[in-house]
Write a structure and sequence with these properties.
Layout: E1 2-6, E2 9-13, H1 19-25, E3 49-52, E4 58-60, E5 71-73, H2 77-93, H3 108-116, E6 139-141, H4 151-160, E7 166-168, E8 175-177, H5 194-198, E9 204-206, E10 218-223, E11 232-238, E12 241-247, H6 259-263, E13 278-281, E14 284-287, H7 290-308, E15 313-316, H8 323-337, E16 342-343, H9 346-349, H10 351-360, E17 378-382, H11 386-389, H12 391-402, E18 406-410, E19 423-425, H13 432-445, H14 451-457, E20 458-459, H15 461-468, H16 473-480, H17 484-496, E21 500-504, H18 506-509, H19 514-527, E22 538-540, H20 547-552, E23 559-560, E24 564-565, H21 569-579, H22 591-600, E25 605-609, H23 613-616, H24 620-628, E26 632-637, E27 649-652, E28 661-664, E29 669-673, H25 686-696, H26 706-716, H27 725-728, E30 733-734, E31 759-760, E32 779-784, H28 800-805, E33 810-813, H29 815-820, E34 828-833, E35 836-844, E36 852-856, E37 884-890
Parallel strand pairs: 1-5, 15-16, 15-25, 17-18, 17-21, 18-19, 20-31, 21-22, 25-26, 26-27, 32-36, 33-35
Antiparallel strand pairs: 1-2, 3-4, 3-5, 6-9, 7-8, 10-11, 11-12, 13-14, 13-27, 23-24, 28-29, 29-30, 32-37, 33-36, 34-35, 34-37
The site of iron/sulfur cluster has 14 residues, from helix 6 and helix 12.
Length: about 900
């Protein structure tokens, strides 16, 4: 440790600390403009100048390391004079239109000029005359207000990991060139807005910012409602309307956001929001009062239960709602109604993760923490379009690349991350199991396995060797349609690295062999001793904001909260004591089984909260038939979705901005959401609505606040047992966190697996997808997500800028296939499978290989899930959304 004195205060700091860090550690403020946390300081703005006794010159605090015995002055006359000179020079290039500037009141240059008494520049006639660039959907760039601090360039290039903007020209003619600027000709801007977030002045401004002043707003810290990264952000609120979002420095997002988190908030106050309950009368949904709607639902549920038993009712909970909402939902289904028929769309995305990793490791969740992605030697991404579906994790992976990491991508599509890849294995959709077996074959035959780890911490190794011995690189190259040498290269890179993590998503899970694919990732990591270690692990990237939490909360037909089994007598008795009722020990139905049972009339009443199976489930025609057959369909949502439009009763829930609660992100981190605005119209928090329904059913609940729900949940959920709102106020906690003094668990399976002393190798031979191409349907059809939309686009579809960038359904087709059918980009084409057909726009691109068609599943104008297959994985019951046979023709 080093001892220094700053402004008369004695400070002890670690060797290598900068003067700025030393000052910040004791609360001494030194102004900065170009400085960004996590980056090597540029020291280009020089506003952080300080004096060190015994030195005639001044030093930049952000870049100067402290030395033993330094006596530092941050506010001496010499320092103040130097900072005034810096500000004077900055003002010379900055158009000081403070009255009209939207940044007025929170401009860091304005604040510093005020603090240092600099009212105008002493330089004349040096400002540039470049016009405002407003070509981006979400923000403008005004070169005349730019102070060239380069924060925007640095955040784009070094933290986001792209080079979409840069500096062009020199001297007073220098400016930031945006992607749309002819001087830069960059095409890789994804409108993440991180440049806007870090701009200290009014040069980069959100377009919406013209409508309010900073001092008119309040700022509420919360968690992004979109993907499973769980970025921390601050909502800006004016007059009960969310008008802006600014990143916070969360453990997962490190001050970054993507385009949805930064600019995707306009759905919150959208005119389409449901504001009153609706009841179907004479075939039409009409507005009603809450009492009438709740009474109607309760009466119908009671009747069905009396006539057909509790298992004639089912519920679909929501990965978009909070932990509190989900906890109360499954409690309503189990305690107030009496059935375990409760599931949610984790069944459609990561049920195979929950099942597969529970078998091999004992816990079906991401083993490591998100931040480790930036600090690896090898990153293996498979079945995940990470930069589009989990954009901030994509940025961290690019940061790792910039630090020297090797990237392996195994994907059917040439996704954006392929630009960074050292090895790209463009596998045939549905061949993941063969790929993993092939990599393990190479590793074992070349002796690259971690035998000590295998001997000490695993079981089943012989069975693994027996299965993978047949998967030689040549055999796998044939199955996956890849190069055998590239497969070997990937296997060697992964096995030899000290820190190597596997990141996967639905390209691995959404198959009839999904559980076997997931276990393949686990087998591979165990073989190389890469579980239970920093920078390694098996990392399933959960898609929706709270899909991890909804599973943790027991919205699964076999599980109470924390995966305690409904058929385990001890677990059931525990919940019976806690909830004061007898509970069913009969496992309930899964999402796909529920739809079948509704169609067959075995389930007569279905309660859906925050889900849209008319867009998200496979074979939508089948879903429609089922829902139209349902005697009581209740939908609780924020918009009249495609599913809500079929309902008997629609209840208006509210958004994440209108309620308190928690989300659990993909790294098991439980984080707060906070009420920023009052509920829109007569909408209510979902847990409040559910409590009212439970009361109407005769099960009294005393939940008045989300805090009370969380407190009860923590008493019956061991992995959340040490958490409380009081603790979460200080930051998120990763489960397991069993006691109030437990710090949370950033890495699972350290020293001991959740399953016990040893993890299990569970090998499986490759099996082809349930439906493969034939002469009638000669192509492989696959689906996925894109950057600008989220799930069934009920929210992103109401954000104008996102819709302007990507507002229609489309199909990607390889140029060779397109040429055979005389299809060019922009043509209307019909894509058909055995279940139906859609007419969409063709995009001819080599992103997809020959013989493969890809459609995003977000768009109602051409719903991809009209085509997808309902074949399921026998263990996890997840449908094979990623592969079916299809045909394309000109419409
Ligand atoms: Fe939100 Fe995910 Fe984007 Fe973060 S990466 S801002 S959590 S959508």
């Amino acid at each position: 440790m080093l001892n220094v004195t700053i402004d008369g205060i004695k400070v002890q700091v670690k060797e290598g600390s900068t003067i700025l860090q030393a000052a910040q550690s004791v609360g001494i403020e030194i102004p900065t403009l170009c400085y960004l946390k996590d980056l090597t300081p540029e020291a280009s703005c020089r506003i952080c100048l300080v004096e060190i006794e015994g030195n005639p010159k001044l030093f930049t605090a952000c870049s100067t390391p402290v030395a033993e015995g330094n006596v530092i002055h941050t506010k001496s006359e010499k320092v103040i004079a130097a900072r005034r000179s810096v500000l004077d020079l900055m003002l010379s290039t900055h158009r000081a239109d403070c009255f009209s500037c939207a940044k007025n009141g929170e401009c860091q240059l304005q604040n510093l000029c005020y603090e240092y008494g600099v009212e105008q520049t002493s330089y004349e006639g040096v400002r540039n005359d470049y016009p405002i660039d407003d070509s981006n959907e979400f923000f403008t760039y005004n070169p005349q207000q730019c102070i060239l601090c380069q924060r925007c360039v640095n955040v784009c290039q070094k933290l986001h990991g792209e080079s979409a903007i840069g500096i062009v020209n020199r001297g007073f003619k220098a400016k930031i060139a945006t992607p749309f600027d002819q001087l830069l000709r960059s095409t890789n801007c994804v409108s993440c807005g991180n440049c806007v977030s870090v701009c200290p002045v009014g040069a980069l401004l959100p377009k919406s910012r013209v409508r309010f002043r900073a001092f008119e707003t309040k700022k509420v810290p919360t968690t992004c409602t979109y993907c499973g990264v769980g970025c921390q952000l601050e909502l800006q609120v004016k007059d009960n309307t969310v008008v802006g979002a600014q990143p916070l420095y969360g453990e997962a997002n490190k001050g970054l956001l993507c385009v949805k988190g930064k600019f995707g908030y306009n759905f919150i106050n959208h005119k389409d929001r449901l504001t009153k309950p609706l009841i179907r009368k004479d075939g039409v949904l009409v507005e009603s009062e809450w009492d009438e709607a709740i009474g109607y639902i309760a009466d119908k549920i009671k009747t069905i239960k009396a006539e057909s038993g509790a298992d004639a009712l089912a519920g679909l909970s929501s990965a978009r709602c909070s932990n509190e909402d989900n906890y109360v939902f499954q409690k309503m289904m189990r305690a107030a109604i009496g059935t375990n028929n409760v599931d949610h769309c984790a069944r459609l995305c990561h049920a195979s993760t929950v099942a597969g990793l529970a078998i091999t490791l004992g816990s079906g969740a991401m083993t490591n923490s998100i931040a480790e992605a930036a600090d690896q030697d090898v990153v293996f991404v498979t079945g995940s379009n990470t930069t589009e579906t989990h954009p901030v994790i994509g940025s961290l992976i690019r940061q790792a690349k910039r630090k020297g990491a090797k990237i392996i991508v195994a994907e059917p599509r040439r996704i954006p991350l392929c630009r960074e890849a050292d090895v790209f294995l463009q596998i045939k959709p549905g061949t993941n199991v063969a790929l993993f077996n092939g990599m393990m074959n190479v590793i074992i035959s070349e002796g690259l396995q971690d035998q000590k780890y295998i001997d000490e911490r695993t079981e089943g190794y012989e069975a693994l060797c027996e299965v993978v011995k047949d998967y030689t690189p040549e055999v796998v190259a044939e199955i996956c349609n890849i190069d055998a040498e590239e497969l070997k290269k990937a296997a060697r890179l992964y096995a030899k690295a000290d820190k190597a993590g596997i990141y996967y998503a639905m390209g691995v899970t959404q198959h009839s062999t999904g559980t076997e694919g997931v276990m393949g990732t686990s087998n591979l990591a165990l073989l190389c001793g890469k579980i239970g270690k920093y920078g390694c692990g098996v990392n399933p990237l959960r898609g929706q904001n709270n899909v991890q939490g909804a599973c943790d909360m027991g919205c699964l037909p076999t599980d109470f909260p924390a995966y305690q089994k409904v058929f385990n007598d001890a677990a059931r008795e525990k919940f019976e004591r806690a909830w004061g009722v007898r509970l069913s020990g009969k496992p309930g139905l899964t999402v796909t089984e529920i739809m079948n049972a509704v169609e067959e009339g075995k389930v007569r009443g279905l309660y859906i909260m925050g889900e849209n199976p008319m867009m998200s489930d496979p074979d939508i025609n089948h879903v429609r038939k089922a829902l139209e057959n349902c005697e009581l369909l209740v939908v609780q949502d924020i918009f009249l979705t495609e599913t809500a439009a079929l309902a008997d009763v629609v209840l208006p829930g509210c958004t994440f901005a209108e309620k308190d609660g928690t989300f659990t992100n993909t790294e098991r981190r439980v984080q707060r959401i906070r009420k920023a605005i009052n509920c829109v119209g007569e909408s209510k928090a979902d847990f409040e609505i559910l409590s009212e329904v439970m009361a109407a059913l005769g099960y009294a609940n005393s939940f008045r606040t989300a805090d009370e729900v969380f407190a009860e949940m923590a008493t019956v959920t061991p992995s959340y047992g040490g958490m409380s709102y009081e603790r979460l106020e200080k930051g998120g906690l990763q489960w397991p966190c069993p006691t109030a003094d437990h710090p949370g668990t950033p890495i699972l399976h350290v020293g001991k697996f959740s399953r016990g002393e040893r993890a299990l190798f569970k090998p499986a031979p490759y099996r082809p997808s349930a439906e493969t191409p034939d002469s009638e349907y000669p192509m492989i059809f696959t689906t996925g997500r894109i950057l600008y939309h989220y799930h069934t686009s009920t929210m992103t579809g109401r954000v104008e800028g996102l819709m302007n960038i990507s507002g229609r359904s489309y199909v990607e087709v390889n140029p060779a296939d397109a040429a055979k059918l005389d299809i060019v980009s922009g043509d209307s084409v019909k894509v058909s499978s055995r279940r139906g057909g859609v007419i969409v726009e063709a995009r001819v691109t080599d992103i997809v290989p020959e013989g493969v068609l890809f459609m995003p599943f977000h768009f109602a104008d051409g719903p991809a899930n009209l085509l997808t297959n309902t074949a399921i994985d026998p263990t996890a019951k997840i449908p094979e959304l990623k592969v079916c046979a299809a045909r394309i023709e000109k419409a």
